[in-house]
Amino acid sequence: MHEVNIEEAVETIRAKDPRYQREAYAFVREALDYTQKSISKGSGGRARHITGQELLSGIRDFALAQFGPMAMTVFEEWGIHACGDFGEIVFNMIEIGLLAKTEKDSRADFENGYDFREAFRKPFLPSDKQDVPGPEPKATRT
């Protein structure tokens, strides 16, 4: 099987779909590896397919560890505003052969993941500010 050059593949993806920065694709790949390692620890070290919901959970944990309170800001810079954007990135990577999927996988798996403010801002707010509503998140661009 031909090895896919990741940089070239991402440039090909971005030529067709420029919504997301190249760093977003690298991050999703790293978050997938992080999630795979986390899940395989709990299953005796055996690798298995990761669902969209599992990947979203791993993305959240990895982003908080990597970027802390700046996670949402970083994602906005990359064109990511909601969980559905991660699904678009994943399926762009699948279409070019960087990732694989099962018949059960779909973009819809990423649509109702979590609220970005809850996931990426709330953990860093003082306890007296935890219930203060923030601005509405931007909708995913299509």
Characteristic key phrases:
single chain; 142 residues; mainly alpha
What's this model, at a glance?
The chain is an all-alpha fold and 142 residues long. The protein contains six helices and no strands. The model has no long low-confidence stretch (mean pLDDT 89).
The general outline is: globular
Structure classification: mainly alpha
Q: End-to-end distance, in Å?
A: 33 Å
Poorly predicted ranges: none
Strand element count = 0
- Rg from alpha-carbon coordinates: 16 Å
Q: How many helices?
A: 6
> Residue-averaged pLDDT, rounded?
89
- SSE string, helices as H and strands as E: HHHHHH
Helix-residue proportion: 40-55%
**What is the number of domains?**
1
Question: How many strands, which pairing sense, and closed or not: the largest β-sheet?
Answer: none
Strand share of the residues?
under 5%
Descriptive notes:
This protein has 142 residues and is mainly alpha-helical. It starts with 5 loop residues before the first helix and ends in a 21-residue tail after the last helix. 28% of the residues are buried. Helices cover 53% and strands 0% of the residues. The mean pLDDT is 89.
Topology:
Blueprint (H helix, E strand, L loop, with lengths): L5 H11 L5 H21 L9 H16 L3 H8 L4 H13 L20 H6 L21
Helix pairs in contact: 2-3
